[in-house]
Amino acid sequence: MRSTIFFKVFELFSQIENTLKTAESLGIPNSEFSVLKILDTTLPYQSKQWFDMMGQQELDSNKLLGTGASLGIFKSQEYGLILISGSLASLFLYNVEGKALGELSTGIYGVFRGLGITQESLDLQLNVFKQDSYMLVARTDENLLTKLESLLLDFDKNSFQNSNFKKAI
Fold first, then answer.
1. DSSP run (H or E) holding 3
2. How far apart are CA 152 and CA 154, in angstroms?
3. 75-93 residue pLDDT tens
4. What's the pTM value of the predicted model, to 2 decimals?
5. Cα gap 95→118, rounded to integer Å
6. E strand or H helix at 14, and its extent?
């Protein structure tokens, strides 16, 4: 089976929910997805509002990806605090000399480039990734993702699939 990466930035949580329902109907399990979200850093750290926000993020993650999905936070130099949940969380949170991989100088850009995403395609999506938006990432069978992308393109022309990244698994 060949694997590829698909990712898309959404402004609304409901858009991700609908996308995952569509993916499930195509046979793509939620375990193949990850969600990144830039967190609101204006809230005082460890305040009641902070814990309320984090509790809601965990509930949202469980709703999207199922209970038990990996979940964590790392600090990106470009974007601030980012919450990641799902299958790629362990990669972004991988400890390298006391820092999460996503926190290193190349940040999320470096992680995605390491997954084989082209610079041009990555730049397009990262330019629209901002606070209170969500980035949905899937790493699964190329044929299934092509079907998902076709459905999403009918809905929104800002979708991206890096068809040049093909890796045998």
1. strand 2-10
2. 5
3. 888 888 888 998 899 999 9
4. 0.79
5. 25
6. helix 13-25
